[in-house]
Design brief:
There is one protein chain. By secondary structure, the chain is an alpha+beta fold. It has a domain at about 25-50. The protein has helices at about 80-90, 90-100, 105-120, and strands spanning about 1-5, 10-15, 20-25, 45-50, 60-65, 70, 75. The strands form three sheets. It has a three-stranded antiparallel beta sheet, with no helix packed on it. A hairpin with a 2-residue loop joins strand 1 (about 1-5) and strand 2 (about 10-15). The radius of gyration is 28 Å and the shape is elongated.
């Protein structure tokens, strides 16, 4: 199982989310006089710790799943039949070429497309 971040059914991150934590320094009492501040001036510096600089997008969730890699190398959820089909289909130009040729070429292409649909069926929620 892998940890992934999913938003709207699409994997947007593989592994832990990089929150990019950092510290912010605030000067609460800046010197407003002329020239440099005296050495004993109290700047009242405060530091905020662990400020999140890269929050997780709204609606994103963390999941432990075994993602599927498509024919084109994209990582998708195994329930994402649309992306799995999209990457497995032959190029559109080849599909159109087979359609225009007709006959056996069209039948072979239709059989190939149907086999991909059978391999990646639509889910109940679709």
């Amino acid at each position: 199982m892998s940890k992934v971040i999913v938003r709207n059914g699409v994997i947007i991150n593989n592994g832990d989310w990089d929150y990019r934590l950092y510290d912010i320094e605030h000067v609460g009492n800046p010197y407003t006089g002329d020239g440099d501040a005296p050495e004993d001036w109290d700047y009242q510096v405060t530091i905020e710790r662990d400020v999140i600089g890269n929050p997780m997008p709204e609606g994103a969730i963390e999941m432990s799943v075994e993602p599927t890699v498509t024919a084109k190398g994209r990582m998708v959820l195994s329930s994402d039949w649309f992306s799995l089909r999209e990457d497995a289909y032959p190029p559109l130009k080849d599909q159109l070429d087979a359609m225009w040729k007709g006959g056996e070429a069209a039948q072979d292409m239709a059989a190939l497309v149907q086999s991909i649909k059978d391999r990646y069926p639509k889910t109940e929620a679709s």
